[in-house]
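YM 10:42: 3-ketoacyl-CoA synthase sequence, as discussed on the call
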Amino acid sequence: MDPLQPTLKTAFFTHLRPISDGLRDGDDFACHKPSDSDRAPTATCLEHYALYDGLAPASVTFLTKILERSGIGPESCVPDATHVLPPDESLRAARAEMESVLFDAVADLFERTRSVADPRDVAVIVSNCSLTCPTPSIAAMVANRFKMGSDVRCYSLAGMGCGAGLLAVDLAREVLGGMKGEGLALVLSMEGIAGNGYTGGTKSMLLTNCLFRMGGAAVLLSNRERDRSVSKYMLRRLVRTHLGSQNRAYRDILSVAGDALRANIATLGPLILPYSEQFKYAWSIIRRKILQSPTTAYVPDFKKAVEHFCIHAGGRAVIDAIEERLGLSEADVEASKMTLYRFGNTSSSSVWYELCYLEAKGRVRRGDRVWQIGFGSGFKCNSAVWECMSDLEPRPRNAWSDRIHLYPVQLTGNNLRTTDLAANKIECTCTL
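YM 10:58: structure's back
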């Protein structure tokens, strides 16, 4: 199927009202930087697998092979509850992880925006965490910790996979747009590691033990007019694709992920691509469909529409597949691969760690557009395109600041490819 098969006319009639995102005085989003004491190098993980009698020897062998090919480096972290044997699977441990990650990120966010934002100004909180869904909710925990107003609207999304971060942004945008007056929305994205390990023998579900790591992000959104002129980024486009009506979306991720990406690009492409690229693609379709030309369909050059790519760091196979499909260079996917290497798969927050990386490298400039691509269970593919609206600090303080001079690193070892999964007869049912 061609990635942009649907009509290109939508480009001329669709308009999304942009909203200001964040505040210029410092970062308008913040990512949690775990403590060095939470590091889980490959050797440590393998030792834990071997010592934990809840895993069968065959599972340990499989986990070892996958972890060594995962593209995750020695600085990725897991919560305290996972460092002990046996792992602490209590609700208390899960809440401790959430508080550690989100309270830190939110405190950092408001510390750097304190001159123009206050927690009591927040009108909406939207949190997303797929596996851990406590009562009171995550959003309520944050509202209590930071003493937000009694009229704050709280929403907690669960079970929506690694693409839920952009879904949370979309929900926050819709709620803000439907409210009387203006306000701020706080989006919280993370995944709970504590208490969610898998000890069975199904290989596809064991994958999550290898890839997921500790992390989270807090993002401040605004529709206040006074923030528009000083906003750091502006949301230009947000496109959601959900293939949940297809039964195979629940059991064949590798195949369905490609379908979801094609469908998402088919909607997003006409909204952001220059007319020259749209014309080239349309002409290639005419040649193939009408003139019966044997030529392949033209793949639009998305680098003419956006300057930076933040692809969900779900695994090297995911990043490599999108790199190949969109004709991207190593430089284009550097932020994604380095985020996976340093932080692991932090689920929905990975696209924010990638934007942190780009900012820490000093690569994002006024007028640049950033394309965030998220994938998640269901199966869902979501895209957000942000435009940089101000001149950023050359080296802002963020989760990458202390080590950014060490990156990028040269990745070595085998890659986890689709063929590797097939060779192990894995039916992919796990979330990305």
